[in-house]
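Budget justification aside, the reviewers requested a transparent look at the raw inputs and outputs of the sequence design task funded under Objective 1. We therefore reproduce one unedited record. The lines immediately below are the structure tokens for a 96-residue chain.
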């Protein structure tokens, strides 16, 4: 199977986002799910993206939102699990 070029990938990603600023993607690697939250950075997400961080992952690095950026995204979504996640993040922060 031929790998899609970058433009095709962007079109696929935009169709999955369907006008929303983020999408959840899951890929199975070696029988284990790898879950990614993909953000389409527009004006409303610029401050969050500006605080991004680079982290080591496997043999390379990935870009992730900062802890504060993650909390802002979760507050914006406001789903019950997001609020639980924020509470856990705050508890972990106060333990350290």
């Amino acid at each position: 199977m031929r790998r899609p070029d970058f433009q095709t990938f962007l079109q696929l990603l935009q169709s999955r986002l369907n006008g929303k600023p983020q999408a959840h993607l899951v890929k199975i690697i070696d029988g284990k799910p790898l879950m990614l939250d993909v953000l389409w950075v527009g004006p409303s997400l610029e401050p969050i993206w500006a605080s991004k961080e680079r982290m080591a992952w496997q043999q390379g690095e990935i870009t992730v939102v900062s802890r504060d950026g993650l909390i802002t995204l979760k507050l914006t979504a406001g789903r019950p699990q997001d609020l639980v996640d924020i509470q856990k993040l705050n508890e972990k922060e106060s333990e350290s």
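The chain has two domains: 1-40, 43-96. The chain has a mean pLDDT of 78. Computational costs for records of this kind are itemized in the attached budget.
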